[in-house]
Amino acid sequence: MSAPSPAPQPPQREPPQPPPAQAQASRPRRRPLLHLSNRVKIWFASLLSLASGYVISNVRELAVRPPLVLGQDAVSTPASALARVTLEHDPQPFINIVPASAEVKTLLVFYPGGRVRPQAYEWLGRALAVRGCRPSFRPFRWTLRLRAPSVPRA
Question: Distance (Å, rounded) from C-alpha 130 to C-alpha 97?
């Protein structure tokens, strides 16, 4: 009887040898594309967060508008207090002021400028209603004022 043969051993690999020191020195070291100090990184992060906060606050104001409130900013005299102020919807809410007298001489449709809310002009509408004018204060959607494609050109 013959003795069992030992199991074949896999060949042992030698650990890789590091390249010579001269080869490492001749190869240029790769630097990061943007190498900034920690102080500059902190300033950059601070400015970026301030800018993003500013943008978010302005976008939120455009997207979420508070409701119109009648009489919020209005100062009226006894004569102008008789004017009927209503909040109507067509399709957006707007302020309509009807004079106390049945006689209406003029209809004035007023679009507030900038980011001014329509109720800020309610006092003006009450004063005009005493003189027979029927003012209507309509807000622009998204506070855009210059979107009229059919403006006549001179």
Answer: 10
CA distance 154 to 147: 18
Q: What is the mean pLDDT of the chain?
A: 77
Residue 94, token pair as written in the block: 């707007």
Q: Above 70 in pLDDT, residue 126?
A: yes
Sheet containing strand 93-98, strands side by side: 84-89, 93-98, 133-137, 106-110
- Region class of 132: left (phi > 0), else alpha (psi between -120 and 50), else beta: left
Q: Count the Cβ atoms, other than its own, within 10 Å of residue 83.
A: 22
The DSSP line for 4-23 is PPPPPPPPPPPPPPPPPHHH
Other residues' Cβ atoms within 10 Å of the Cβ of residue 129: 25
